[in-house]
Write a structure and sequence with these properties.
single chain; 262 residues; four-stranded mixed β-sheet; three-stranded antiparallel β-sheet; 8 helices
Length: 262
């Protein structure tokens, strides 16, 4: 199979509901830095102690309803070249914010950590957490389904640069690292202490309804090969400033991924 992708990856083997209306993008430039002291309890820690500290920090958040996610995504994923549109995550298509819904060629709410992996559905909490929800083309969302992430497969017709097979999905190169960091966030944020399953990375695919997402070895390589960019930093700021008031630590401190999963 011939297609463009991150070159080194060819070697891989196998808190109350927040009341919001339709928010508007912040006019001030995002800081791309957490408030001073935000990660104070995690500094200097490694392994399980680091994971526990980060969980405690990012669990302090406001929670959206599933309906409020529509409004949130219209802000977090706004097309910087056209403020009437959102950018669709897998296909990179710019599309009207108002064309959301469930029909073909509309956009809907994609759970990057598939909601069946842990059976949390659309419940406030993991089912509505903007740190892993993205706008996607309805058909592409259906094509991804609840598959784990890995390399390979056939190209997705409506999202060139994405590939899929029976048990895994490979996003386009430009968002591979974004996917990895969203999955890492979910694994640290949801530890089974708030009525939801304990979400964990593993190095498998075809995890079904188990509270696992893989493939961890591939996700870690994506994290390294597609580093944090300006758009990802801005999105982290917007979620923190306007909606949930928590952050994805693997965007702010990418080195912590190696501390937890190397």
């Amino acid at each position: 199979m011939q297609h463009s992708r991150l070159t080194s990856l060819a070697l891989v083997a196998g808190a109350g509901v927040l009341a919001i209306g339709l928010a508007t993008p912040a006019t001030a430039a995002p800081t791309h830095q957490p408030p001073e002291g935000y990660y104070q309890d995690a500094v200097g820690k490694t392994g399980p102690e680091l994971e526990a500290a980060l969980h405690g920090i990012i669990s302090e958040q406001d929670t959206l309803s599933y309906d409020q996610v529509w409004d949130g995504l219209k802000v977090t994923d706004e097309d910087p070249a056209n403020n009437a549109n959102v950018l669709l995550f897998y296909s990179a298509r710019s599309q009207s914010k108002d064309s959301n819904g469930g029909d073909a060629d509309q956009w809907n709410r994609e759970h990057v950590w598939a909601k069946s992996h842990g059976d949390f559905g659309t419940a406030p909490g993991p089912g509505t957490d903007l740190h892993h929800l993205r706008p996607t083309d309805v058909s592409v969302n259906s094509e991804r389904g609840n598959k784990d992430f890995d390399m390979g497969g056939s190209e997705v017709q409506e999202a060139p640069g994405n590939f899929t097979d029976d048990d895994s999905y490979e996003p386009r190169d430009e968002v591979k690292g974004d996917v990895a960091r969203m999955i890492m966030y979910m694994a640290v944020r949801y530890e089974g202490t708030d009525g939801f399953a304990d979400l964990e990375l593993n190095d498998q695919v075809d995890n079904g309804e188990q509270p696992f997402m893989g493939r961890s070895s591939v996700l870690l390589q994506w994290h390294e090969q597609d580093p944090v960019d300006e758009a990802e930093q801005r999105r982290n700021d917007v979620i923190f400033d306007q909606f949930q008031h928590n952050r994805n630590p693997f965007i702010d401190r990418p080195e912590w991924a190696g501390e937890l999963w190397s």
